[in-house]
Amino acid sequence: xxxxxxxxxxxxxxxxxxxxxxxxxxxxxxxxxxxxxxxxxxxxxxxxxxxxxxxxxxxxxxxxxxxxxxxxxxxxxxxxxxxxxxxxxxxxxxxxxxxxxxxxxxxxxxxxxxxxxxxxxxxxxxxxxxxxxxxxxxxxxxxxxxxxxxxxxxxxxxxxxxxxxxxxxxxxxxxxxxxxxxxxxxxxxxxxxxxxxxxxxxxxxxxxxxxxxxxxxxxxxxxxxxxxxxxxxxxxxxxxxxxxxxxxxxxxxxxxxxxxxxxxxxxxxxxxxxxxxxxxxxxxxxxxxxxxxxxxxxxxxxxxx
Length: 305
Ligand code: CP
Known about the structure:
Number of helices: 10
Number of strands: 9
Distance between the termini: 19 Å
CATH topology of the largest domain: Rossmann fold
Strand content: 15-25%
CATH superfamily of the largest domain: Aspartate/ornithine carbamoyltransferase
Helix content: 25-40%
Bound molecules: phosphoric acid mono(formamide)ester
């Protein structure tokens, strides 16, 4: 059966656990997987800038012995001539065995999946979802905490447009005993459809404006960037861009076993001095992203090792 990942809940919790088990095995035994995708091709179709997601998806396929092709800029593809995502997905299906797409429009990856004859990986569609980042985040939390249930997670920054935040909340809402603390300026609060979902599932959450108000209660602090590209005017961006700066002073209030995650890229929201704190886990998180994307590619291609 042809499978895609457009949002994290396209996979059951049990299926995700299995992907994380494969990723953990890859971390311990990389050589075992070095030829698993020999002869297979991954196409990366990126209509929006990316460093981590594109390169770690490509690194994942290369680590599995496969090959990669693709474009990293819509202007260098036939999108510049007006080709639709639907047509591009059919064309890419003739060239590759699996396709990864990032697009500024919400729903673009879904359109690709409805037209492709190969598995499609959503690598971010506008302000909507970013499921492979969420798999990365979940694997990182599991590795750091040894579990994916019963903890308090603070999500800080642009909670309105942040697709990594939307995907992560949806994914964590399927685990037991999660409490959310949403830390954002009023204008960048988490959308109503998400709080409606949490209310319906009776999952507790609270809204805060300042990190200082709740940092001492958290097991995980998930920082995000204020995203210039999602704002409709520069004035609002300039007013909000430095609203949060996590620094060594604020980290003094956090518990010894509280970890800081960030999907990256970072701008100003985490001071560089925090990188030296052993609780700063955002660069380790990037490495987990490669393992989990390797496990995801194997799963979507139905390859057992
Ligand atoms: N985390 C993330 O999506 O980073 P990139 O934009 O560099 O892919």
